[in-house]
Design goal:
The structure holds two protein chains of two kinds. By secondary structure, chain A is an all-alpha fold. In chain A, helix 2 packs across helix 8 and helix 5 crosses helix 6. Chain A has two domains: about 60 residues; about 350 residues, Formate dehydrogenase/DMSO reductase fold. By secondary structure, chain B is an alpha+beta fold. Chain B has a single domain, classed as Alpha-Beta Plaits (2-Layer Sandwich). Chain B has a four-stranded mixed sheet. Chain B has a three-stranded antiparallel sheet with strand order 3-2-11, with no helix packed on it. In chain B, strand 2 and strand 3 form a beta hairpin. The longest helix of chain B has 10 residues. Chain B is globular and about 55 Å long. The chains are: A mainly alpha, B alpha+beta.
Chain lengths: ~450, ~250
């Protein structure tokens, strides 16, 4: 089993081994990305008129729609990845080591998608990329979104992902394979000596410590995009920022659970990601979910107890009107998981299928809630007598949204083929796999 | 210090929308875009209803939410009180639009040229000169392409770029020449007045002097530069009984 004798030995976790199944998944994801690109090109060719968005006021539309909802959602998903990774590092949670790298990857992928969703939403994307930096104004809540979230947080997450992956790169670079030079480049002189490991451990510890407050600030800044607007009923409020942070955690942890369940099966690493890891994630999700539902109740009570006239129209639209289906659908998608998780936590029997269903449900609920934050306050929150507006996304917006999710799958799939998605065990070259073969 | 502002006498307004028309021609706004809009409102319950009119230009707030939220400083407030958009800098994120409680912002949803199918008249054609007398059509007004103010930024007129935000400019190209905005100029009953609202002797200050005044949504703290007299703010049950064209299709 040493590198010298078995030169044809495959790399761990199917890295570098492009199987048929992988080709199919990647092909479908690639098709989805193409659909998204077509949608984007149509939008840029015709102008934003190709979307369902229109002006507020006389045009009775919503000027922020699916795209901004997706920005908020993707940035929210990114939250959990780096949080979990940082917590693992800070509190040395051994049993969770298996999900650390995929959590870091999830953060990076989700942030890239969030940044792209902002660009797609801009009327002048090229100007945006230049001007957002050239003329940056810290007074604008968007400043936090662009600098803290997209630049600072993405960069910090990339550094973190890189630092924590160098040991594996160094290990793999010692073995002959097609990707050997790539791993050598990745390791960049790292040779896994005691000295280097100590330095890496210290750096990533302090980086993790620095990332946690940055994360709260970044997600709060996204909440401030809405929470500071006194002219929009339903947006203005102090709960907006903390609720954003908590819902971000909910959707992100849900994502990690689903992702870990799939990857664990694909690379056959049931022992590396054990049920105790899922139980930890499930309990964490339960706590966040309870916190978020508390915020929802507080917010709704404030909105319906003695509302101003504008807020009355808004709460009616949410509870019984145009948005009732989305609202109650989201509430159900967030409340059902509480019962499921609480049951599993009390009986201490964690079922993976239930957890995956919970992960999917909370994400559907999160997308619904993000949409309900962005849109109704525009169509039903006019303070001058403009009349009630409406917003129906066009096929272009759905195509682009589909493209984003496909791109996310594509990025994770490609990463899995060039680097081990689960941290290799210390001192051993291979992950202990359940079977000898990797991903047929 | 000059602070330009507008005074609107609601007791004079008859809802004729001459101001809306003047604005569209002067500023070359695309269809379905109304930098100046006149609400025709009905309030009360039948048979005790009443009709009122409420012209709504941009309020050019002193504490403008749109200026605050702009991530690139394309929306800015000039020293003389005008709140303007730098069309060369705007990235089209539409944050100003959601931040504004007055609904005065309009986005260029499509290519501006496509929005002017009605204007396909060859004004340059020598054969047409005897008919037009050599007059420049409003949409070819060179002032709209010029840079204005101390800042020298492209702020006048509409329909410059696709995907850029625009709104009422108080006709900055006219203000620079000491002319009143087009809506004020065109009002047949003198319901609109424009000038320095901080100068007590200016016509606009005289116009509102000793009259009961209000500003729209004043409690939001935006400190608008548009002052209404001769009426009351729209009642909470007021609704529009007639609306302008609102459709924008590709």
């Amino acid at each position: 089993m040493t590198a010298g004798t078995v030169s044809k030995e495959p790399l761990p976790q199917g890295v570098g081994n492009f199987t048929g199944k992988w080709m199919i998944v990647t092909g479908i994801a690639l098709l989805g990305v193409i659909v998204g690109i077509v949608g984007f090109l149509v939008e840029k060719n015709q102008g934003m008129v190709a979307t369902g968005m229109r002006d507020l006021g006389t045009m009775q539309g919503a000027t922020w729609g699916v795209y901004i909802s997706l920005v908020v959602y993707f940035v929210g998903v990114s939250f959990a990845g780096i949080t979990v990774a940082a917590l693992i590092r800070l509190f040395n949670l051994e049993h969770l080591k298996g999900v650390a790298r995929m959590a870091e990857l999830l953060t990076v992928v989700a942030l890239i998608l969030g940044a792209m969703a902002i660009v797609v939403d801009l009327g002048q994307p090229l100007r945006g990329i230049v001007n957002l930096f050239r003329y940056a104004r810290p007074q604008s809540p968007f400043f936090g979104t662009f600098t803290l979230v997209i630049s600072g947080y993405l960069f910090a997450s990339l550094v973190y992902l890189y630092l924590t992956s160098r040991r594996d790169a160094a290990t793999l670079a010692k073995r002959p394979s097609k990707l050997r030079s790539f791993f050598r480049l990745w390791a960049a002189g790292y040779e896994n000596t005691l000295d280097q490991r100590e330095r890496d451990r210290r750096t990533s510890f302090w980086l993790a410590l620095a990332l946690l407050p940055l994360l709260v600030v970044a997600h709060s800044s996204l909440g401030f995009v809405f929470g500071l607007q006194v002219g929009r009923p339903g947006w203005f409020g102090t709960l907006q920022a903390p609720a954003f942070v908590v819902l971000a955690g909910v959707s992100g942890i849900g994502h990690i659970i689903v992702m870990a369940a799939i990857i664990r099966r694909v690379v056959r690493a049931k022992r590396r990601i054990g049920m105790d890891a899922f139980a930890w994630l499930g309990r964490f999700l339960l706590i966040l979910l309870l916190g978020y539902l508390y915020f929802v109740v507080v917010e709704m009570l404030t909105l319906i107890y003695q509302p101003s006239i504008a807020e009355q129209g808004l709460s009616e639209a949410l509870l019984t009107g145009t948005y009732a289906a989305v609202f109650w659908g989201s509430v159900v998608a967030l409340v059902l998981p509480v019962f499921a998780l609480a049951w599993m936590a009390i009986t201490r029997s964690w079922k993976l299928s239930w957890l995956v269903a919970v992960g999917v449900l909370v994400n559907i609920g999160a997308i619904g809630k993000r949409y309900l934050i962005v849109v109704p306050s525009q169509t039903h929150g006019q303070l001058l007598p403009y009349g009630v507006g409406s917003y129906t996304p066009s096929w272009v917006e759905f195509a682009v949204a589909f493209g984003f999710f496909s791109l996310g799958v594509l990025m994770v799939a490609v990463f899995m083929k060039i680097f081990p998605i689960i941290e290799l065990k210390d001192e051993t070259i291979e992950v202990e796999l359940d079977t000898e073969e990797v991903m047929t | 210090m000059t602070r330009y502002g507008m005074a609107i006498d609601l007791s004079r307004c008859q809802g004729c929308r001459a101001c809306v028309e003047a604005c569209k021609i002067e500023n070359n706004t695309p269809s379905a875009v109304f930098w100046m809009h006149v609400f025709r409102l009905e309030q009360g319950e039948y048979p005790n209803t009443s009709i009122s009119f409420l012209p709504r230009p941009c309020q050019h707030c002193n504490n403008a939410p749109c200026v605050k939220v702009c991530p690139v400083g394309a929306r800015f407030k000039r020293d003389d009180g005008l709140v303007l958009t730098d069309f060369d800098r705007c990235i089209g994120c539409r944050y100003c639009e959601v931040a504004c409680p007055y609904g005065v912002n309009f986005f260029n949803w499509r290519d501006p040229e496509a929005a002017f199918a009605d204007y396909q008249v060859p004004f340059d054609d020598p054969a047409l000169v005897p008919v037009t007398g050599g007059a420049i059509p409003p949409y070819k007004n060179p002032d709209l392409e010029e840079l204005h103010g101390e800042e020298q930024r492209l702020t006048a007129g509409s329909a410059h770029f696709k995907g850029v935000m625009e709104k009422c400019t108080f006709c900055v190209q006219r203000v620079e020449k000491n002319l009143a905005p087009a809506c004020v100029q065109n009002c047949p009953v003198g319901a609109l007045q424009f000038g320095d609202i901080e100068d007590d002797r200016s016509p606009v200050s005289q116009f509102i002097k000793d009259k009961k005044q209000f500003k729209l949504l004043e409690d939001l703290g935006t400190d608008p530069s548009v002052v209404y007299v001769g009426g009351t703010p729209p009642a909470s049950d007021a609704h529009e009984i007639e609306r302008p064209l609102t459709k924008v299709e590709a």
